[in-house]
Amino acid sequence: MTDEANPAETQRFTVRSDYAGTRLDKWLSEAASGFTRTRIKALIEGGAVSRNGAIFDDASWKIREGEVYALTPPPIEPWAVAGETIPLDILFEDKDLVVINKPAGMVVHPAPGNWTSTLVKALVAHCGDGLSGVGSVARPGVVHRIDKDTSGLVVSAKTDSAHLKLRRAFSVHDIERVYDAIAVGAPRPAAGTIDAPLARAATDRKKMAVIDEGDDRPGKRRAVTHYRVTEVYGRGRAKLAGDAIASLVECRLETGRTHQIRVHLASIGHPLIGDPVYGRGPGLSGLRPGDPAADRARGVLSAFRRQALHARVLGFEHPGTGEALRFEAEPPADFIALRDALRAL
Q: In terms of DSSP bridges, do strands 309-317 and 176-184 run parallel, antiparallel, or are they unpaired?
């Protein structure tokens, strides 16, 4: 399919018969090196793609056999983000990348309302000018992100080549990502797959929502979460005999959409403890009054001010050496305190 494969320069592609009828943005995101479908769509609409020698900006076009497309991305932007000296928990670092265990409460990149104390600013201070500029002027080094109040593992690129290769790995789901979540109740069955597309909620653009397969609203993306209940808490102490008050759920991401785990578990009736957007906030309804263990759990819950979600495992192929890398980070103290209080129920 590919005639050229240098992601830093023009890439050219010829449509084969077995791809005829595919949307242009979908086909090109699979064919091109180092670009997500969202980025490809933006590049098409921005005039970075030509068809048979002429600029072509219809991302939804159904491609035809024999058409020749050329993708010429704009030059990588220089960035100018002021660093902040913030301690970082670095698990691995070399000339190509850095893997960080991000604390809950830290935003990955600067944005309105969160201009300071971000991971990007900490990385700029740590790495100097040794971060990739592919991400844009505001996001040097950023390959992927996790929510502000989710703790755990994040990889950032220090070279443009590493950035493009890592971004490509994320776009084709060639990354191992395992999260620990503490959910209200316990999913049944105890292991399964949630394959439900996500898009912006119709009533609140800041929220994501599961939508029907037949809903073709803009921004709809396939989302797949594989889950497994690893611990069940409070069974026998709940108000209804046999019910679980909460559970520890291991979630493996096949795709990585915004708020994916939070929305998927909420959609099957088991939102994350502490989730102020998709759950019930702090507190559990099943705790028996007057039970000392339940009283202790209530105290821990009242102090837990975020969704109970931790990115525990991150595995990928090193973009420079090809070595298989796998990192694991234990949950932070607040997550452990919550888990231990629930174990005592």
A: antiparallel
Which residue range forms the structural domain that includes residue 66? Answer: 11-71
> Are 70 and 50 within 8 A, CB to CB?
yes
- Residue 342's nearest CA partner among 104, 138, 181, 213 is 181
pLDDT digits (tens, 9 = 90+) for 153-207: 999 998 888 888 888 888 888 999 999 999 999 999 999 999 999 998 988 878 9
Digit-coded pLDDT (tens) for 3-22: 333 344 788 999 999 999 99
Which residues carry out catalysis? 147
CATH number at residue 46: 3.10.290.10
Cα radius of gyration (the chain): 22
CATH code, domain carrying 113: 3.30.2350.10
Taking a C-beta distance cutoff of 8 angstroms, is the pair 286, 334 a contact? no
Per-residue pLDDT of 294-328, as tens digits, reads 889 989 998 998 999 999 999 999 999 999 999 99
Are 42 and 188 within one domain? no
Q: 23: how many CB neighbours lie within 10 A of its CB? A: 16
In this structure, are strands 309-317 and 54-55 parallel, antiparallel, or unpaired?
unpaired
Using CB atoms within 10 Å of the CB of residue 332, give its burial: 0 to 12 exposed, 13 to 18 middle, 19+ buried.
Answer: middle
Q: Which residues contact 48 (CB under 8 A, 6 or more apart)?
A: 71, 72, 73, 74
Give the C-alpha separation, 273 to 283, whole Å. Answer: 8
Q: Measured between alpha carbons, how far is 105 from 154 in angstroms, rounded to an integer? A: 14
| Three-state DSSP state, 55 | strand
Question: Amino acid identity, residue 145?
Answer: R
